[in-house]
Amino acid sequence: MILEVNDLHVNYGAIKAVKGISFYVDKGEIVTLIGANGAGKTSTLRAITGLEKVAQGSIHFKDTDITNMAPHKIVAMGITHVPEGRRIFTNMTVMENLRLAALLNKDPEITKAAYEKIFDLFPRLKERYMQSTLTLSGGEQQMLAVARAIVTGGELIVMDEPSMGLAPKVVDEIFEVIQNLNQSGTTILLNEQNAYMALSIANRAYVLETGNITIEGPAHELLNDPRVKEAYLGG
Fold this sequence. Notes:
Blueprint: E1 3-12, E2 15-25, E3 30-34, H1 41-48, E4 56-61, E5 64-65, H2 71-77, E6 79-82, H3 94-101, H4 108-121, H5 123-127, H6 138-152, E7 156-160, H7 168-183, E8 187-191, H8 195-201, E9 204-209, E10 212-218, H9 219-223, H10 226-232
Parallel strand pairs: 3-8, 3-9, 6-7, 7-8
Antiparallel strand pairs: 1-2, 1-4, 4-5, 9-10
């Protein structure tokens, strides 16, 4: 088990966004959280990566308690975050964004291998590596957000809505990259509104509704679950 979340509570003042959920991610898996807007998925991911305060409960990464640990320490331990809305540095070039992400890598050979890996996964970023990120399309910006997480390194990548606002063809490309990443040894925790795509590539899934886990199990079973079909897969 690479990640274990126990009885997690996240509050925003009087609002209880996450109400005591527990789940785990095994090494080498793709695990997805699905649910409507406001279900608590983003709050859960942000709590894991130290961006939201945990009100109650615990988060363990490889047997180390990381509950409310500073975000930069969590990154150094091996968890990287692809945030909702991309959050790339738009006043920099593609390569400057990647160099910033590589600062944790002290070995230049590791950094070089990471650049080769992402330019193999994202040929368009290689073509545009000296361009300002403002000139990139939405899909290319999302590719850069994922590439930045890869360059940062780490065993677990937490992805928040990677397909949001993208054209269907680009969504297919992003999900193909997620699968390739996973096959090369990276564990992935995925929050995704496109439930069909997420369940199609995941090993296991958890359905969140108003801060609670209501359904969980193998992703292929949830794809055929009548409750999931009706609520998230258009019947």
